[in-house]
Amino acid sequence: MRIALGLEYDGAAFCGWQTQPGGCGVQDHIEKALSILANAPIAVTAAGRTDTGVHASAQVVHFDSEAHREPSSWVRGTNSNLHEGARVLWATEVAADFHARYAARSRTYRYLLADAPVAPAILRGRVGWYHQPLDEKSMQAGADALLGEHDFTSFRDAQCQAKSPVRRVLEARVERFRGLVVFTFRANAFLHHMVRNVVGSLVYVGAGKQPSAWMGELMAARDRRLAAPTFAPDGLYLAGVEYDPAFGLPGFSTHPLLELP
Predict the structure, then answer these.
(1) Residues assigned a catalytic role
(2) pTM of the predicted model, to two decimals?
(3) For the residues 90-111, what does the mean pLDDT come to?
(4) Helical H segments across 39-153, by residue range
(5) Per-residue b or e along 15-47, where b marks 16 or more CB atoms closer than 10 Å to that residue's CB
(6) Which of 31, 93, 199, 237 yields a CA-CA distance of 20 to 30 A from 219?
(7) 25 and 15 Cβ atoms separated by less than 8 Å
(8) How open is the CA angle 98-104-249, to the nearest 5 degrees?
(9) For the chain, what is the mean pLDDT?
(10) d(CA 167, CA 239)
(11) Rounded (5°) CA angle 98-6-85
């Protein structure tokens, strides 16, 4: 049978999602915990591969197993053997054609940024930081250029393995909430480091280093060297994955830190 899981994890506790030789990836820990419960090797596939330091409040994975367990057992049993930095939130049996990655219609990433003279201590590792106030209106004007289907080469990491740099951005919002600047991006898919590279460039706009129109110019240039440096991973969260409702997946409760009006 095929099982889907909903996960959340603290990216600072792992070396990214993908399995690593040293076993430090979120995937390594999830597979180990599931294999103990199933009494057999388990391999999982995720909706998105987050980088080191990037968090997830709504990651979705699937796996196949001949072990028959109640959904609640997949949750509690896996968590009892799992690193405390990650948790299974729900489990459900899905159709054999469900695929956590390829069946996803869109993915939503959210970046939380503190723009203040002093870096945060209590939220260290949970939010990004820039040392001066940012203009969210000019950043929103710049983010508007991202909407639609474009070649995002200027925001693509050099090590990106995607076959095409073209992505369709469905939502790009910049707003201020609870003292933080919140960036929300929803797209059919993302390139490696795409969100962090976009945020870095938008921060240049918000700080007055570049005009809002610069974002459109960067996309047209298709040259990563012209954009701002990759921003820190601390404030980035995989905050949602959209599927056809026919799959019947449970929803995710909004995390208080990521809640918007």
Answers:
(1) 51
(2) 0.94
(3) 96
(4) 71-80, 136-143
(5) bbbebeeeebbbbbbbbbbbbebbeeebebebb
(6) 237
(7) yes
(8) 60
(9) 95
(10) 18
(11) 140
- Structure-token pair, residue 84: 């405390």
Q: How distant, in Å, are the alpha carbons of 114, 182, 199, 260 from that of 134?
A: 9, 11, 12, 19
Q: Which two tokens stand for residue 125?
A: 């590792």
Q: What are the percentages of helix, strand and coil residues in the chain, rounded to 5?
A: 25, 30, 45
Say yes or no to pLDDT of 259 above 80: no
Altogether, the residues listed in the chain come to a count of: 261
Cβ neighbors of 42 (< 8 A, separation 6 or more) are 31, 34, 35, 63, 65
Distance from C-alpha of 98 to C-alpha of 113, rounded to nearest angstrom: 35
| pLDDT tens profile 27-44 | 999 999 999 999 999 999
Sign of CA dihedral 215, 220, 226, 228: positive
C-alpha pair distances (Å), 143 with each of 182, 189, 203, 226? 12, 17, 11, 17
Euclidean distance between CA atoms 135 and 144, whole angstroms = 15
pLDDT at 255 over 80: no
CA–CA gap between residue 126 and residue 244 (Å, rounded): 31
Tell me whether strands 128-130 and 106-115 are parallel, antiparallel or unpaired: parallel
